[in-house]
């Protein structure tokens, strides 16, 4: 009887999943949070990310314009 419950429970188990890698920044945030502290927002990479996003949007617009020039707008 006990063994049947154990076997029935095993059917619903899922294989383990990979845990995401933890960066130093994430570790610092987790430790500070557990201590009840809040780290100041450093803005690390925010300007660089905005610049990269703007460049990506410009590339997309440029490609669409080139495609429309070559094939004509619908």
Content-based structural category: mainly alpha
Mean pLDDT: 81
Shape: flat
Strand content: under 5%
Reported for the largest beta sheet, the result is:
none
Q: How many β-strand runs?
A: 0
Distance between the termini: 71 Å
Q: Portion of residues in helices?
A: 55-70%
Low-confidence stretches: none
Number of helices: 3
- The H/E string reads HHH
Rg, rounded, reads: 26 Å
Region (Disordered): 41-74
Protein name: R3H domain-containing protein
Biased composition (Basic and acidic residues): 47-56, 65-74
Question: In brief, what are we looking at here?
Answer:
This protein has 74 residues and is an all-alpha fold. Helices cover 62% and strands 0% of the residues.
What does this molecule look like?
With 74 residues, the chain is mainly α. The protein has a domain at 45-73. Helices cover 62% and strands 0% of the residues.
């Amino acid at each position: 009887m006990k063994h049947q419950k154990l076997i029935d429970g095993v059917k619903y188990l899922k294989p383990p999943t990979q845990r995401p890698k933890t960066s130093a920044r994430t570790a610092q945030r987790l430790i500070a949070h557990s201590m009840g502290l809040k780290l100041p927002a450093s803005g690390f990479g925010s300007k660089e990310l905005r610049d990269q996003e703007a460049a990506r949007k410009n590339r997309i617009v440029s490609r669409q314009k080139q495609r429309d020039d070559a094939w004509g707008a619908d």
